[in-house]
Amino acid sequence: MVHYIRFLKSPRFVLAARSPKQVPVSALITITTDLGDAFYPGDLSVYTAIATRFGKISLGLTFWKSGMRCLKIETKVPLEYLTSWARLVFTCSESLEADSLQLGKVPYIVSAWTEEFRGPQDPIADAVVRRFTLLEGKVLEICEENGESIARHIWDAALGLTTWLVSHREMLGRQDDKQCTILELGTGCGLVGLVLGSLRQNSRLILTDIDEGSLKLTTDNAQKSRELFNSVCECRSLDWKEPHKFTCVESLTFIIASDCTYNTDSIPHLAQTISELAQRSMELHQEALSPQVIVSTKKRHPSEAIFFDLMSKAGFEQKEHTTVSMHDQYRESIGQDVEVVDVYVFERARVQ
């Protein structure tokens, strides 16, 4: 099970207590699951650091203890580190580096970074930034909201799918292939789609969601990531109850969705949307096979199985099924099984 460091109260400089050489900063964090329904059950070391263009400087060490629901962190930042753009880092990794997705292993504690600020009088944005190292040392930044909307956070199935995509890069095609078009359903923060865009250069990304706040967040994340790839990216609203109203004239190469089966009531609409998008793409471009449909799930209840029944009835054949282990140091230490994310690849022939 992955846990995420989140800000209950974003870091703030205590200007009234500053001295000629340093200024105090305080934050209230929690370490919780993707849905925020459980807290990290063990003991952890939490490192605080400041990252500047000159490197990262450790500011101190605080301890998360078993049974905690939140942790107040107070430290002091030397003013010499605040003369240019900087950001604060809260992590369980002693290296203070971005969380790696390079080795096919999901990080078990996802670090929290602030947005960049300049000087102690510059307000720190009320948001949390995730930083992930991809292939070739590229670092992708994904901003999440601090609010209560779970739609605007990274979920475990998205992390599992991105890890799988990095380790299956060859299935995405060669970089010199013709432009491919990737459509993501329920994009949330945009993590999966943007990782795909960095892995499959010269692609067109269509990242969709029904939540306007998610689309704005994804648009901002795509703007920040534009240096990672030469892909064209657009964020668009798509209502699964009315897929016929969604205009898409491109030949789709991939349709992707992560953790979209948790709401049983929406599963029939999800399957119907996938089916309509695939059929329309094949008909418009006279293609014999559908786009590859890549779906990741973290099973939360048995009723999610209806999705696979509906996909089968729509003529989709399951081409691949892989499980991605969600590395969990605590569970492993007490001999418990770790959770997994399931990744499925579907394809179907065109319906005449």
Report the strand count. Answer: 19
| Helix-strand string | EEEEEEEEEEEEHEHEHEEHEHEHE
As residue ranges, the low-confidence spans are none
Q: How far is it from the N-terminal to the C-terminal residue, by CA?
A: 44 Å
Number of continuous helical runs = 6
- The biggest beta sheet, please? 7 strands, mixed
**Global outline:** globular
Helix percentage: 10-25%
Q: Going across the biggest sheet, name each strand in turn.
A: 15-14-13-16-17-19-18
Strand content: 35-45%
Helix/strand-derived class?
alpha/beta
Q: Output mean pLDDT.
A: 90
Radius of gyration over all CA atoms, rounded: 21 Å
Task: Give your account of this protein's structure.
- The chain is an alpha/beta fold.
- It has 6 helices and 19 strands.
- It has a 7-stranded mixed beta sheet, covered by helices on one side. Strands 3, 4, 6, 9 and 10 form a 5-stranded antiparallel beta sheet that branches.
- Strand 1 and strand 2 form a beta hairpin.
- Helix 1 runs parallel beside helix 2 and helix 4 runs parallel beside helix 5.
- The chain starts with a strand and ends in a 5-residue tail after the last strand.
